[in-house]
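Dear Dr. L.,

I hope this message finds you well. Following up on our conversation about the binding site, I have prepared a predicted three-dimensional model of the protein together with zinc ion. For your records, I am including the exact sequence and ligand specification that went into the calculation, followed by the structure tokens. Please feel free to forward this to your student if that is useful.
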Amino acid sequence: MSTAAAYGVSSPDGSFEKITIERRDVAPHDVLIDIAYVGICHSDIHTARNEWGGSRYPCVPGHEITGVVAAVGTAVTKHRVGDRVGVGCMVDSCGECPPCRAGEEQHCTKGATMTYNGAVDSSVQPGGNTLGGYSTHVVVTENFVVRIPDEMGLDAAAPLLCAGITLYSPLRFWGAGPGKQVAIIGMGGLGHVGVKIAAAMGADVTVLSRSLSKQDDGKAFGASGYYATSDRETFRELRGRFDLMLNTVSANLPLDYYLRLLKMNGSLVILGLPEKPLTVSPFSLTGGRHSLAGSAIGGIAETQEMLDFCAEHKIGPEIELISADAIDDAYGRVVASDVRYRFVIDVSTM
Ligand code: NAP
Ligand code: ZN
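The resulting structure of the complex is given below.
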């Protein structure tokens, strides 16, 4: 057992405090990572504040982790001491079920072990509740550790481990590319990376944001169109326009209005995870043979593929680095959509 400094909350309405946590010993297939940076995802906020229910405390969020390998177990073959690596939303899965065998560990039928707020044996994480990357060190089984391409900074790479793969995977699955009209709904942490990746894939990208305040950024990220959803005219003008719409919004939207913007056979994919159920009229799906689908992060191999794709296309998230004592303030600013476009904690400030 070793100890690490971490930032966590002890209740849904608590402030972040510096605490000391324990990490397990490095087992034969484990990698010990010195964490350098960790992104702040809106899911961290949903969990720390128990907005989805089921949060366990103390809660140490953080699943956009980058750092350097400090030690490896005796049987590790994939990583070496000194390697630049990343860890995303998952730290383990059964490895045997059909989704795991297909490289879709996020859909493990037994439930993947999430990087934080996951129930585990105390031999995996002392205390029985996984603790995430708002900490100086983490021990992870080698198969759930990915390689950060040399040309990427560890700071800007961090948000790719969740935001990047969450957009890359559905863009690939639903065939975004030349000739495809893709809409990204909400241009926050997830959405802005989605614009860049979809444009790099060759799709024609349109942003649907509440206002036009971020229009110049959206165009610079690669969008050809940018519309305000606060303007009713948007929903008239864009009717029947899109092959694929990715909804990254953290709040409930009137989905029937958005579904009308799909072409025949088009798909609207839910990525954002508001706490309340969604409501949809069946007529919005039957007319136009529309699909309403969802997608969760992506598998480990696909996460590596996404990192290599971003390196090749020289794209990455726009980040604002903060020190660990500014997490509460950053949460307030994310909720107020006052972030351009992802906060990343400099873990050396812990
Ligand atoms: P974020 O940075 O806060 O971005 C969310 C965006 O949604 C905002 O920038 C804003 O875009 C829009 N928005 C926020 N409140 C809204 C409201 N009341 N009405 C309309 N639009 C609103 O959050 P994020 O980190 O990108 O995460 C977004 C959501 O995805 C969260 O619910 C998170 O838990 C979820 N998530 C899901 C997965 C997955 O695997 N499916 C992975 C990671 C995160 P505009 O300002 O452009 O309107
Ligand atoms: Zn996330």
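In brief: The pocket of NAP (ligand 1) is lined by residues 41-43, 46, 162, 166, 186-191, 209-210, 248-251, 271-273, 295-297, 334, 337 (CB under 6 Å).

With kind regards,
A. P.
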